[in-house]
Amino acid sequence: GAVVSQHPSWVICKSGTSVKIECRSLDFQATTMFWYRQFPKQSLMLMATSNEGSKATYEQGVEKDKFLINHASLTLSTLTVTSAHPEDSSFYICSASPWTGALAKNIQYFGAGTRLSVL
Amino acid sequence: AQTVTQSQPEMSVQEAETVTLSCTYDTSESDYYLFWYKQPPSRQMILVIRQEAYKQQNATENRFSVNFQKAAKSFSLKISDSQLGDAAMYFCAYRSANTGNQFYFGTGTSLTVIP
User: Fold this and answer.
1) pLDDT given for residue B4 in this prediction
2) Confidence of residue A22 (pLDDT cuts 50, 70, 90)
3) 8 Å CB contact of A34 and B91
4) A14 contacts: CB under 8 Å, gap ≥ 6
5) Does A44 touch chain B (CB under 8 A)?
6) Is A43:B108 a contact under the CB 8 Å cutoff?
7) pLDDT tens for residues B17-68?
8) Residue A55: its pLDDT value, please?
9) Which residue in A has a C-alpha nearest to residue B110's C-alpha?
């Protein structure tokens, strides 16, 4: 099956610093990747859709200047939490769908998630 | 936006028994995909099963099967011969076949398996 690698799995940072999270599709190409935020015992909340070679599409209420998304290649998308504050502490998950091939089948494959703790 | 509803926040099942998790959705589209994902304590989202709306036959994957009722907009997951490793949060998800590839997730059902 398709593998999505997300790094780091856990990061602790000081308030005011920026944190970058990487999402890589290891064995397929993805023109679109998704970034979610998940609070404890809650569902996934879509933050933005990352499009290769173009600007990300943010969901309503998500600050695009705080959550910078870059999708520079067909296998890599990054989420940068800028000037992080304690309220940004959460679990962030990325996902990707193969855009062609036998793996496609309209499935989203998920990274293992990143736990962000802002002190 | 499509709405996906999971009305059972928590469910429990005895090991080796069968349990059914409910999911309903609201859409005006005729062509779409439905999914069940599992999120164990590790929090890695794992695809359990997938159903295309144009297929009348219910999808099955080993001990997991669905009851897809298109007219009723219902998509329940049946887990047979429950195992301890089945304990997890289960999310139902909807994806349009025509308008982008965004997923709409339900609020999840926490499944406990009792030894």
Assistant:
1) 96
2) very high
3) no
4) A118, A119
5) yes
6) yes
7) 999 999 999 999 999 999 999 999 999 999 999 999 999 899 999 999 999 9
8) 87
9) A41
Nearest C-alpha in A relative to B42: A112
pLDDT digits (tens, 9 = 90+) for A76-111: 999 999 999 999 999 999 999 887 765 566 789 999
Nearest to residue A1, comparing CAs of A110, A93, A114, A113? A110
Q: Look at A44 and B102 and tell me if their CB atoms are within 8 Å.
A: no
**Are the beta carbons of A93 and B45 separated by less than 8 Å?**
yes
Residues paired with B92 in a beta bridge? B36
Angle of CA points B86, B46, B44, to nearest 5°: 95
Q: What percent of chain B has pLDDT over 70?
A: 99
Flag whether residue A100 sits within 8 Å of chain B, measured between CB atoms: no
CB contact under 8 A, B101 and A105: no
| Tokens encoding A21 | 């999270």
Strands in chain A per DSSP E: 4-7, 10-13, 19-25, 32-38, 44-51, 57-58, 67-73, 76-81, 90-96, 109-110, 114-118
Q: Which of residues 69-98 of A touch B (CB under 8 A)?
A: 91, 93, 95, 97
Six-digit token string for A119: 């002190």
Distance from CA of B108 to the nearest CA of A (A): 6
